[in-house]
Amino acid sequence: MSSPVLDIRGLSISYQTDTGSLQALRDVNLVVEEGRIIGIVGESGCGKSTLISAIIRLLAPNAQIGQGAVNFKGGDLLGLSPEQMRSLRGDEISMVFQDPMTSLNPVLTIGRQMSDVQHRSTASRAEKRARSVMMLEQVGIPDPESQLQRYPHHLSGGMRQRVAIAMALMAEPSLLIADEPTTALDATLEVQIIHRLKELQREFGCSILFISHHLGVIAELCDEVVVMYAGEVVEAGSLRDVFMNPKHPYTQKLLECDPARIAQPTRELPVIEGSLPNLVNLPNGCIFRERCSNAVSRCGAERPLLSGDGHQAACHLPDTSP
Amino acid sequence: MSTLLSVRDLRVRYPVRKGFVDVVHGVSLDINRGETTAIVGESGSGKTTLAMALCGLAPVFGGEVDFDGVQLKRDRRNRLNPDRKRVALMFQDPVGSLNPRMTIRKALAEPFRIHRVDARNPDREALRLLAMVGLGNDFADRYPHQLSGGQARRVGVARALALQPDILIADEPTAGLDVSIQGEVLNLLSRLQREMGVGILMITHNLNVVRHVADQMAIMYLGRFIEQGHSRQIFSQPRHPYTAALLSANPSPDPNAQPSQIELIGDVPSLLQRPSGCEFHTRCPRAQAQCRSSFPELTTGKENQQFNCFFPMGE
Q1: Within-domain flag for B237
Q2: Number of cross-chain residue pairs from A and B with Cβ atoms under 8 Å apart
Q3: Fewest Cβ atoms nearer than 10 Å: which of A127, A288, B103, B252?
Q4: How many other C-beta atoms can be found within 10 angstroms of the C-beta atom of residue B110?
């Protein structure tokens, strides 16, 4: 097998706050093989955003990288200078954000913005323009020539997000990071975007790291899933393994809570009792113990490590899957 | 079921440089006591504007609204003027809708002060409201930025229901929440609805939520309802092709699910250039010549399921 595009090893990140050091990520491992689509699921506060900010090195100023490595195509991103990192962003690694209105500049035309992102290229203006038209065509925007003259507010939400995807793929990056790119869209457009992403991924051969808390979207798009809880990876494996046969109690509960999986309409939706642990004063042992109905004494004493072959889970309990 | 709010042919029109744009284009709906009515549609379809108009926060261009049997008058600025003690609104952004410099205690006592409702002890009322939504007393002295998204929603629910309104208009009450916290907020709304008999108008684009909590639903496209009725009926047998596409597109979390999606081509047309005839014909897989030239009148099917389509599904 070829070496992975992205290989995160034992990454720990904390934020300095007034009340102490908040351990946002602890010992996170994540591997993205070439040409794969990896989904990251987890509740807000689980560290998804910190993780992607660490990859593109756009962490908040009060963040501190404790230990670990973010290997991208063999080199550690954490050791790069800001200049070196800048030359990777938008070229080798690009991003699609949640809200396309705020990631596009409202006072510049689509054409201007699409030419601007090609600033590294030595192509002529006409060539850049032609490439923009081609990319818009690729993402399925009708009449791309005339769209170049328009401003973001002229476009619908679905079109804006497709423009953002076209811009992200412009430089044919090795890794595309998509942070909840379909949250603002209705189901019909959501499906359009997902199918388009899948096609483009096949065409360009890039890897995609896809963040969402919509489990249906993850199931539709991803090859592998990483489940995060309170700053740790608690389960990882192929989509089928994780969704059909979840090993970690948190994953099991999360899947049970999805209203889409409950066939009979109900006014009493299942919830995960309790709340996220305090990340400043971390509890001992398993991070999910306080909300876990199967916890045993060992869970309070010893932190479970991610184990297993292919389908991994961080849980002391033997297989608790139903 | 008694009808609390009855909306007939409501229109909201905004002037633009070259004329005007109809954001809400003739909408009729009834909200019943103790029931939840969901409005589904993508962003830009006019859902939020409709909610704003009903609360008197957006001007009304045409149509009538009866609240509890009395027709609402419009003020000088063409805004409806419902009794805001009885019609409460929960805004989309839960943290943004709380004053960042006000403690939760103050925020919860504010409705009583504004409406000069005799609450002898606003402090005790605030604590009662916190308890009602399942938050402890220690939340009273926190500021909005110290709350998580789910907690801020709960405060939003408490504030909206402080004066025991008859109607709660909830704009995307679970957007951005995780499935577990989404469940908590929805269960809370359902419980309070049972206890207080409040009629809820819920605006959302999450179909999974609608399927569980809505009694009635309406699907909005370009400022119009293209289908409405009992949500069970619509989920089991959608008649309008857009509804059918919307329901089939809802991605399933089951990796074994057979993709049976009706994929729509093209994009949502601009409100500034409404298509001729049936406004959905530009994306409709069933469109024929008639759809391009004439507008389909409202058809009423079984169980009062209403839709605008010449060639409905299942025929």
Answers
A1: yes
A2: 138
A3: A127
A4: 17
Residues of B in contact with A276 (CB under 8 A): 148
Chain A contact probe: residue of B143, B154, B179 with most A CBs at under 10 A:
B179
Query: CB B251 to CB A244 under 8 A?
Result: no
For residues A29-60, one letter each, b for 16 or more C-beta atoms within 10 angstroms of the residue's C-beta and e for the rest, the string is bbbbbbbbbbbbbbbbbbbbbbbbbbbbbebe
Residues of A in Cβ contact (< 8 Å) with B175 = 183
Q: Is residue A24 part of a domain?
A: yes
A 10 A CB-CB count for B214 gives 25
pTM of the model: 0.86
- Window 231-250 of A, Cβ < 8 Å to B: 239-240, 243-244
The CATH number that applies at residue A223 is: 3.40.50.300
Task: Please report whether residue A278 resides in a domain.
Answer: no
Q: Domain of A66?
A: 6-92+171-232
CB spacing of A271 vs B187 below 8 angstroms: yes
In a domain, A178, yes or no: yes
Q: What's the CATH code of the domain at B63?
A: 3.40.50.300
pLDDT tens, residue order, chain B (315 aa): 589 999 999 999 999 888 899 999 999 999 999 999 999 987 778 898 999 999 999 999 999 999 999 999 999 999 998 888 899 999 888 888 899 999 999 999 999 888 888 777 888 889 999 998 988 898 999 999 888 888 899 999 999 999 999 999 999 898 878 888 889 899 999 999 999 999 999 998 889 999 999 999 999 999 999 999 999 999 999 999 999 999 988 888 888 877 677 878 777 888 888 999 999 999 999 999 999 999 999 999 989 999 999 999 987
